[in-house]
Structure formats: structure tokens, C-alpha cells
Design goal:
By secondary structure, this protein is α/β, with parallel strands linked by helices. It has 2 domains: 128 residues, Conserved hypothetical protein from pyrococcus furiosus pfu- 392566-001, ParB domain, CATH 3.90.1530; 60 residues, Ubiquitin-associated (UBA) domain (Helicase, Ruva Protein, domain 3), CATH 1.10.8. 39% of the residues lie in helices and 13% in strands. The strands form 2 sheets. A 4-stranded mixed beta sheet has the order 1-5-3-4. The longest helix is centred in the first third of the chain and has 13 residues.
Length: 208
């Protein structure tokens, strides 16, 4: 990934930011909303926003495309925050609109997969963070990483890769109805050799 450039000092409307993925884990969004509420004073909230600028690509038509922190952007929107600071990772304003998404894809800055793990056309990516859909398996993967199921990794969209791995091995209704049970099953799957190819795998070296 390119070096982050100087941040844009003037806040950008959250709803003007364009996502580069189709889904988020709404359970994770809810947790971020809760943490935001814990910063009760305006000063603390402003400090939090200053520490968590949204990395974006400056694209055609002068639009800003979010390439990380979609969950935070959605959480802040749901909490009524209207403007946010961004940091430009790359200037691609000179790229043809038709070629823009291909360039993002080549740089691993877009993940056009829906809540069923199926690849979709770039045009199906939501135009606003408010329209991001829920993928419960993304929430499951995020929680799995937090409890040590796999290590944080620099591989782009690594948690979505884990989400897709889990999606193919358990039913969604289990995740929806009993998240803790699903997490227990996910942890066992994460430690198996079936997951050895995934980023951040830290399962046992051998299995009996």
C-alpha cells in the first residue's frame, strides 16, 4: 500500500464517501458505536476522530473512496456524526472512470463480494456507507481474531477471507441464533489444518 499522504484538514461528509466493499459485520459496527458513546465529551470525541482518520483513494469526479475502516465510518454515521477527517493514500483522479475499479482491484483496494461470499460487479458496490449490508460471518471472523483464533495480518481483506472460510463450514442460522456457540465452532475450525492457507493462521503444528 502506498504511503499515507497529508490528511485533508477540512472534514468530509461521511455520506459522500464511497465504499470499496459490499458488507460489514453489523455486530462489530454495534461495538464501535458503543465505544463511541463511552467518549461522552465533545473534546474526547474530536480526539478520537483525529486519531482514526479514514484512509481513502481520491478518484474520478473528485470522489473519495474508503479503503479501510468501513466499520468505523458506518458506526459514526449511525451515531449521527456527519463529517469525518480522511487521509489520502493515493491520487487516482487521472484514471478513466471505466478503468478505476480495475486499478483498485489490482492494488487489492476493493472487495466486491456480497454477504453470500459471491463476487459481484463493481456497480453493485453501495454508493454510501449507509447502504453497506450485514455479513454475520464477517462479525464472526472479527471476534475470532480478537479471541486469538488467528493473528492480525497485513493481507488485504484477511478477515473477509476468514469469513468466507467459516461461511462454507457452518450454517448462517447458527451464527444468527447462538453467536457464542458459533464462535466456539469457529475457533475449532481455525485451529484445524483446513485453515492453514489463511492469513494469520496460528493453529497447532500437528494434530493427533
Amino acid at each position: 500500500m502506498a504511503s499515507v499522504r497529508e490528511p485533508i484538514v477540512n472534514p468530509i461528509p461521511i455520506l459522500s464517501l464511497r465504499p470499496t466493499q459490499m458488507t460489514v459485520g453489523m455486530r462489530e459496527v454495534k461495538e464501535k458505536r458503543q465505544r463511541w458513546r463511552e467518549h461522552k465529551s465533545k473534546k474526547k470525541q474530536q480526539e478520537l476522530l483525529g486519531r482514526h482518520m479514514i484512509p481513502v483513494v481520491h478518484g474520478p469526479d473528485e470522489r473519495f473512496y474508503v479503503i479501510d475502516h468501513h466499520h468505523l465510518a458506518r458506526a459514526l454515521h449511525d451515531e449521527g456524526v456527519q463529517d469525518i477527517l480522511v487521509a489520502i493514500v493515493a491520487d487516482l483522479t487521472m484514471v478513466d472512470r471505466d478503468a478505476f475499479w480495475v486499478v483498485l482491484d489490482d492494488r487489492k483496494w476493493v472487495y466486491p463480494y456480497d454477504a453470500n461470499g459471491e463476487r459481484r460487479h463493481y456497480r453493485d458496490i453501495p454508493k454510501s456507507v449507509a447502504d453497506l449490508k450485514d455479513d454475520p460471518f464477517r462479525s464472526l471472523a472479527g471476534e475470532l481474531r480478537r479471541i486469538g483464533g488467528f493473528a492480525k495480518d497485513t493481507t488485504p481483506f484477511s478477515e473477509f477471507l476468514w469469513a468466507d472460510f467459516l461461511r462454507r463450514r457452518m450454517k448462517r442460522k447458527i451464527v444468527d441464533r447462538d453467536f457464542e456457540k458459533a464462535l466456539e465452532k469457529a475457533l475449532a475450525l481455525a485451529k484445524s489444518k483446513d485453515a492453514i492457507y489463511l492469513p494469520g493462521w496460528c493453529g497447532p503444528a500437528s494434530e493427533d
